[in-house]
Amino acid sequence: MKALLRAAAGAVAACLVWGAAYAADAPQFPSKEGDFAIPDFHFQSGETLPELRIHYTTLGTPKRDKKGHVTNAVLIMHGTGGDGHQFFRPQFANVLFMPGGLLDPAKYFIILPDDIGHGKSSKPSDGLHAHFPQYDYHDMVEAEHALVTTGLNVDHLRIVMGTSMGCMHSFMWGEMYPGMMDAMLPLACLPVQISGRNRQWRKMIIDGIRKDPAWMGGDYEKEPVMALRIAAGMLRMAGSAPLQMQKALPTPEAADADLDTYTRHELEMLDANDLLYQVAASRDYDPSADLGKIKADVIWVNSADDFINPPELGIAEREVRKLPHGRYVLIPISDRTHGHGTHTWAAVWQSYLAELLDETRPQTP
Q1: Domains of the chain (ranges plus CATH)?
Q2: Would you say the pTM of this structure is higher than 0.85?
Q3: How far apart are CA 97 and CA 248, in angstroms?
Q4: What CA–CA distance (Å, rounded) separates 332 from 352?
Q5: Phi and psi at residue 59, in whole multiples of 5°?
Q6: H/E element holding 298?
Q7: What is the pLDDT of residues 118-150, one digit of tens each?
Q8: Distance from C-alpha of 364 to C-alpha of 295, rounded to nearest angstrom
């Protein structure tokens, strides 16, 4: 039974890229880290910060053409609650970043930001708590762009790609900066407003935190544990992979033990204000009206066992028609898929990244 539980925990832990489980992983590849400070950052809410800190990790070296334009930069954006280090997980890095891999750092300059409110970037838990500006996805993409262009002096991106929230940011990048990238690989999202069940499970987390008396308007001294228990449970469901979990957790005892282990870990790592802001940031996301502005070649990949983006809605098949140069791929449920977290198992979808790299060429300004 102990061996079974260890296997179950390993199989299920990767279902959702969420939380500090990824932040704890140190990169195993040669990389550089830094902080880019953006002075007097203005948020969509009208609030400002005297200085916004964006942390980042890079691999490789930028290469420039005769006119000085970067030709090999790849921007990879993480999911809600994650950070740039999540892409050093073996199922991603050991497939793509290895020598000879599709994103070999000897060939590409890879940029892995920590978004606003995440990782080592500016966030509520730094000290402002619930008085931190109410950031949204537009603010996050603007900060990513400032890091890339001003912070790293990169004027062109070979590929823009991202997982979950980073997938949603990819669509926004394509619309806000349409001439800046050759290709896009959005993984595990829909380019429409957050509504239906997707909105409701997020609202359960938001309301659970705000209505917990221990939250104290965000000025708590001890974490509101009951709210975080609700949140941990919802995150588990959102990232669940039914086939994998049924195989890994075949008995009530195994399922209960796995949930208990997961919840204990999350309660040790989560901060209520940070999580509240992270989930609430999607409130006004909706790139659907401007998908036609995207100039880049797009291969958009979802998996059929994704709780957050269920294929039966038919949204992707409708929205992909708006992309001038886009294709939608739905990966069937199999022993290789991992629910929403399939986005981080690169072996499952790397063939589509290979297609993008093969079929497009750097088109610098």
Answers
A1: 2-8+198-279 (1.10.1740), 32-193+287-359 (3.40.50.1820)
A2: yes
A3: 28
A4: 15
A5: -130, 145
A6: strand 297-303
A7: 999 999 999 999 999 999 999 999 999 999 999
A8: 13
